[in-house]
Design brief:
alpha/beta, Rossmann fold, 2 domains, 7-stranded mixed β-sheet, 3-stranded antiparallel β-sheet, 10 helices, about 35% helix
Length: about 270
């Protein structure tokens, strides 16, 4: 972690640095972590109007589980920070457990994963549950213990945000089952699952950049009924589509038609 200031009057630039020795010298990769309020605004991270309504509706709840899924480098953590930034209001007790802490948020109690000091995810989450939290962000659900603790926290009056590595929103249901979470617990705790990818914008003005493409699966009564009746994912998807669900691929095609991205970006980044 590195903080840079180009001169005394300039803002501090937060960076994450990774180095590795190579044959001809040290290879350095620096990620700039933009922590401005604009960059951590839910309205500026690529949700469609319907998806935004689902997100805000869920964030107004006092308990439940919200998951963001996607591969490494797809912007999951930035999306979670945007949710936290929205929830970060006076009178709310917010906690995070992260590996590592990527962005420092004023007003949020952030705890770093440090197994050598005895601070693994399980230990930290159990400790946080005794801190009277309103909102908890768990950096990643990576094993059965973390999954069970996240579900328990969501069922006991806390709003829980986390990420999970799955291909899309629907496959997250199977992933949770593989981690020991039964379908009853899934339907009684999940508010929505958002899956995302980052794709390159068409560079019309010689300015690079990427845009997030999302799919948001809301756990409505009909969807939960289908999951509890052990419908296959293909049938669950049909139920979701009747309620307005659109896949990442469909949302990417819409951006192609608007001239924001090109077809090669879809083929490269979106798995149909």
């Amino acid at each position: 972690r590195l903080q840079i200031s180009l001169n005394p009057s300039s803002p501090i630039i937060d960076c994450r640095v990774s180095t590795i020795p190579t044959l001809f010298g040290e290879k350095v990769v620096i990620r700039l972590l933009n922590t401005s309020a604009h960059e951590l605004n839910i309205d500026h991270i690529g949700f469609t109007d319907l998806q935004g309504q689902i997100v805000y509706r869920a964030l107004n709840q006092t308990h439940g589980l919200i998951l963001v899924c996607g591969p490494t480098g797809s912007g999951k953590t930035r999306t979670l920070y945007s949710f936290l930034n929205h929830l970060n209001q006076e009178g709310r007790n917010l906690y995070t457990v992260e590996d590592p802490i990527e962005i420092c948020l004023k007003g949020v109690n952030q705890v770093a994963y440090h197994p050598k000091a005895g601070l693994d995810f399980g230990v930290i989450i159990r400790a946080l549950l005794r801190q009277d939290p309103d909102v908890m962000m768990i950096g990643e659900i990576r094993d059965r213990e973390t999954a069970a603790l996240a579900i328990t926290a969501a069922q006991t009056g806390h709003l829980v945000l986390s990420t999970i590595h799955t291909r899309n929103a629907l496959s997250c249901i199977d992933r949770l089952e593989n981690l020991g979470v039964d379908r009853y617990a899934i339907t009684n705790t999940l508010l929505f699952i958002s899956s995302q990818r980052l794709v390159k914008r068409i560079d019309l003005n010689s300015i690079g950049g990427r845009i997030a493409i999302h799919e948001v699966l809301e756990f409505t009564n009909d969807l939960c009924a289908g999951i509890q009746h052990n419908l296959p994912l293909s049938e669950i998807k049909k139920v979701a589509q009747l309620e307005g669900f659109t896949s990442m691929y469909e949302n990417a095609k819409d951006l192609v038609q608007k001239g924001i991205i090109n077809d090669s970006s879809i083929i490269q980044e979106i798995f149909i």
